[in-house]
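Entry for the shared binder. Reason: the reviewer on the internal report wants the predicted structure included alongside the sequence.
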Amino acid sequence: MHELEFIDKNLKELLNRMNSFVKENDVILSSLNPSNRRSAENLMHYLILRNEDMRSLQDRLHNQGLSSLASSEGHVMRQLQMILRRLGNDIPDSGLSDLDYITGKKIISERSRELFGSKKTSGIPFLMVTFDTDFADNYNLVRKLLLSGMNVARINCAHDDESTWIRMIKNVNLASEETGIPCRIYMDLAGPKLRTSILGKGKKHGFIPVNEGEEILFAEQDSDFDPLSKVIGCDEKGIINDLNPGERILFDDGLIESVITKCSEGIAVLKILRISAKKSKLKSEKGINFPDSRLFIPALTSYDISILPFICSYSDMIGYSFVRDRADAELLQQRSNYTTAQPA
């Protein structure tokens, strides 16, 4: 098959998969605000594009002096159609997607401005600053951050409380009023607390030494484990029963990688695969990630729900990290809309 014929055939197949995916999800698309449908369809096109191994096709497109689709995220269908046109396919203007490069770029710019506010210099990305507890009582620092280019003030709701957050927000609003520089308030929900605890050997010191190839236990606090063994737990109860052999568990921002070799009631055996930390220690209060597991724990905790009224009253954006599917997103929308008449 000639190279141009190969490109033409593969692009048409890709286009058909995109159209089929959009058609399959018409119910979801119909439930959206009409002003967002075009962008949602483009996202679906993009997901199909990125679900493919495009390297061979992209090399061939490059070799023929055609667009490789590498920078088409804002106008996927239109870019694909224009390449097919260059290959001699008869696609009338009426059949072209109206989401071209200029339109896509304009929408991204408008949506970014709606989300993050305006900024002085277009070439500099939007800057988000996470607030420390001290920021609540340091107006001058908040003002300096605003003058230095801060566009979004992030408040991590896993720390402090409403009395501290309101002082942070007042500092931002006052500084914004005095300088004339807008700043969004972004409040990050704490979500489930997936952090380590030391249950067995090393509990007194708050850490255990670990080595690659070694096996340790990952257990529920009330399970029947040997307290003299190396045993770690998770602050969130009920995790172990959702795990299966062969699934990975990452600790401390991925610095320590392990795999589950065996599971029993309330206890999992982990084999340490990799240690990228400078010190071969697993400490308490370190983050845990389960990249291969389906955990049946709520995305919104009771604590998150209790602070939603405050967040909906004072923030411009809500951070929601533990999202696994559409139902999780809908849950936050429902809770937020119940709390306030303003859209989430």
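Summary line for the report: The chain has three domains: 3-114, 128-191+301-339, 196-289.
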